Structure formats: C-alpha cells, structure tokens
Amino acid sequence: MSSTSQKHKEFVAEPMGEKPVMALAGIGEVLGKKLEEHGFDKAYVVLGQFLVLKKDEELFRDWLKDTCGANAKQQRDCYGCLKEWCDAFL
Fold this sequence. Notes:
Elements: H1 6-12, H2 29-37, H3 43-52, H4 57-68, H5 72-89
C-alpha cells in the first residue's frame, strides 16, 4: 500500500463537517476550482458522489477524471482518502 500524505492523515482523523473540497487528498487548487464549477464545493458533496457510485474505485476514479481532469495519482489519493474516512466514520 502506498504511503499517505499529511493532508490525507489530517482529513481522515476527524469528522468531515464543512471542509472545503480542497481538503481532500489529491485535490489541489486547480482541481478544486473545477469541482466547485460543477457544484462540488465541499468535501461532503464529493463524498455523496462517492457513495452514489457505491464506493466503487473504478467508477469514482473515472468520474473524477471526467469531472475535473484528475490524473491517476490524484484519483488514487482522493479515492483512498474517502474510502479510509468511510471505514472510520460510517
């Protein structure tokens, strides 16, 4: 398993609350703005899409690529972050 970033560790350490979309691992300013343009302004809105896609890695990663142009590492980081958060809090 790949190592996780500090951003990932901070995100999964506590409830999501009203964290901005850019708090998600793999989502920086550029991708965050693209997601916001599509109505995904908060981390919990992206979590909703993750759950709608039944936590399926391939579907979520494809959605992320199609929605904001995330590359493979960004997709993997964001998926891993949301999956670990769900394992801890759902």
